[in-house]
């Protein structure tokens, strides 16, 4: 078993902890509120499926970076998020915070941000943090000023203008702590492969796979994926293990540990049904490795993820992936339009007695 841990921080009124599946209704309400959403991400309200993906990414960054966003809880209810963000293309580690409208104007953002600053300095040695704030976001600017931050310059983040507010020295006393949350990710072993949770060092090899046009021809929109999307997906696929929404694994060679692909189960709310998916770098095609990895994940999905059904959604024309599904005992039950393209549905039989 592998996985990663997320600490729990306590301030006078708040608990900062890992996101949980039961947070999703409150988190979706928060991210779906236009007043909150206008200053987050691309500035649009998120539906429940998109909010689930945001929480999964928040969890998954902990595995990739060793830090990330906390869920902020008050009196047992989720009231926001706060923590550290650092996607690969960003210029600096960001101290981020957002509070649901019903819990605003109570000083929660300041209290949560102070706890994160103190923890980051004590546990990680990160004493130089910034906040990227949209110029019209007066409440967040007021929080930054109250924390002692100073306006430094303007930048573009995700193509949107933002002000850089640089924080000064963090509080000297670290926050109280509670039990850490452990997000468990199993290790699946086959004769030639080891499948494990993603790590930060997996980013470059997965980016290389995603940059290959022939490999991506039948995946998603059929185009190579840029590093920003790859990062977001790696975080989401990893965080899914903690939200009971399937989960993905890095496919590594047993003999040298090289990352050669990815395989997992898409069971997030946006998906029509649990899907077994697999992708190998082109240099490793034709060796039976995709079937070997997919068989291990299939068995894990039935045995431990407890999926009610399992299929592979394979774009019409992708004979190699269809061949893998057939080799694993799946049968094609029909076609549908998925991700805007004609797609075959291959259904896996449940295990005997299971």
Structure in words:
This protein is α+β, with helices and mostly antiparallel strands. The protein has two domains: 2-180, 3-Layer(aba) Sandwich (Aminopeptidase); 186-347, Aminopeptidase, CATH 3.40.630. 30% of the residues lie in helices and 31% in strands. It is built from ten helices and 17 strands. The chain has helices spanning 24-31, 34-37, 48-65, 108-124, 138-146, 203-210, 213-216, 227-239, 289-305, 319-327; strands at residues 2-10, 15-17, 69-74, 77-85, 94-99, 130-133, 150-157, 160-166, 176-185, 188-189, 193-196, 246-253, 259-266, 275-280, 311-315, 331-338, 341-347. The strands form four sheets. It has a six-stranded antiparallel β-sheet with strand order 5-4-3-2-1-9, with helices on both faces. The chain has a five-stranded antiparallel β-sheet with strand order 10-11-12-13-14, sandwiched between helices. Strand 7 (150-157) and strand 8 (160-166) form a beta hairpin. Helix 1 packs across helix 3 and helix 3 packs across helix 8 (227-239). The protein starts with a strand and ends in a 7-residue tail after the last strand. The mean pLDDT is 96.
């Amino acid at each position: 078993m592998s996985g990663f841990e997320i600490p729990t921080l306590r301030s006078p009124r708040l608990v900062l902890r890992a996101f949980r599946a039961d947070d999703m209704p409150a988190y979706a309400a928060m991210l779906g509120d236009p007043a909150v959403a206008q200053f987050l991400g691309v500035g649009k309200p998120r539906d429940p499926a998109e909010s689930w993906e945001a929480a999964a990414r928040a969890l998954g960054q902990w595995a990739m970076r060793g830090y990330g966003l906390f869920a902020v809880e008050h009196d047992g209810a989720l009231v926001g998020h706060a923590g550290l963000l650092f996607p690969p293309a960003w210029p600096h580690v960001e101290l981020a915070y957002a509070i649901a409208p019903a819990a605003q104007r109570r000083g929660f953002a300041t209290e949560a941000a102070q706890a994160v600053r103190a923890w980051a300095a004590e546990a990680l040695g990160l004493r130089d943090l910034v906040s990227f704030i949209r110029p019209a976001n007066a409440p967040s600017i007021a929080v930054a000023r109250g924390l002692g931050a100073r306006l430094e310059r303007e930048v573009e983040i995700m193509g949107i203008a933002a002000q850089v507010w640089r924080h000064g020295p963090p509080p000297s006393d670290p926050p109280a702590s509670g039990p850490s949350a452990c997000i468990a990710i199993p290790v699946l072993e086959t004769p030639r492969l080891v499948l494990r949770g993603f790590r930060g060092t997996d980013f470059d090899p997965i980016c290389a796979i995603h940059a290959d046009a022939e490999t991506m021809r039948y995946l998603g929109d059929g185009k190579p994926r840029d590093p920003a999307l790859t990062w977001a997906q790696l975080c989401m696929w990893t965080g899914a293990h903690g939200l009971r929404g399937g989960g993905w694994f890095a496919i590594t060679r047993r003999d040298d540990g090289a990352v050669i692909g990815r395989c997992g189960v898409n069971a997030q709310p946006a998906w029509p049904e649990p899907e077994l998916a697999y992708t190998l770098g082109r240099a490793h095609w034709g060796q039976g490795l995709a079937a070997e990895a997919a068989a291990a994940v299939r068995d894990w999905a039935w045995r431990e993820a407890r999926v009610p059904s399992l299929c592979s959604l394979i774009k019409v024309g992708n004979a190699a992936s269809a061949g893998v599904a057939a080799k694993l005992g799946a049968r094609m039950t029909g076609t549908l339009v998925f991700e805007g393209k004609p797609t075959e549905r291959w259904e896996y039989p449940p295990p005997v007695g299971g």
